[in-house]
Write a structure and sequence with these properties.
There is one protein chain. The protein has 155 residues and is α/β, with parallel strands linked by helices. 43% of the residues lie in helices and 24% in strands. The protein contains 4 helices and 6 strands, in the order βββαβαβααβ. The protein is globular and about 40 Å long.
């Protein structure tokens, strides 16, 4: 298992959930919810978090249909991951996140939160689920999870 802090990202149309791991890659915890923006302010804030926490890798959830097919959300997450990778100085990886938001809603409901009161934190919980899954997968396989986002070449 590689050591170092990882950041987990759940990309949504309105909000981006952010989570982090501990230094040993054992446990993921929520960090914050970043408002999605058209002007890259969201990616700048994530870059600040990367610097503040000394992150060595970012895990972005890749939303796929249950069948494994790509959706409009898949394209949005990939585009966000590519833009983020171009802006930060750490590698970005895409990891399958099927059902992470559903699991986040279920966990919050089980803790007594209703949908309205959970809205501000559901993205953080989803990011935490995505990152914990990635940590567990790496621990089990000995390989980094998912696949890397390739740097864009061109103007």
């Amino acid at each position: 298992m590689r050591t170092g802090v990882r950041l987990g990202i759940d990309v949504g149309k309105v909000r981006i959930g952010v989570s982090r791991s501990d230094l040993h890659g054992m446990l993921a915890t929520p960090v914050e919810t970043v408002a999605r923006s058209e002007d890259a302010a969201d990616r700048r804030r994530i870059g600040e978090i990367v610097t503040e926490l000394g992150v060595f890798e970012i895990i972005v959830g890749l939303p796929l249909a249950l069948s494994g097919a790509h959706t409009a959300s898949t394209a949005d997450a990939v585009a966000f991951a590519e833009a983020l990778e171009a802006q930060v100085d750490v590698p970005v990886r895409l990891v399958d996140e099927r059902l992470s938001t559903v699991s986040a809603h279920s966990a919050l409901r089980a803790s007594g939160k209703n949908s309205k009161s959970a809205r501000p934190v559901v993205d953080q919980v989803a990011a935490t689920i995505i990152l914990q899954h990635a940590l567990d997968a790496e621990r089990a396989s000995g390989r980094p999870p998912g696949h890397p986002v390739e740097p864009s070449i061109g103007p």
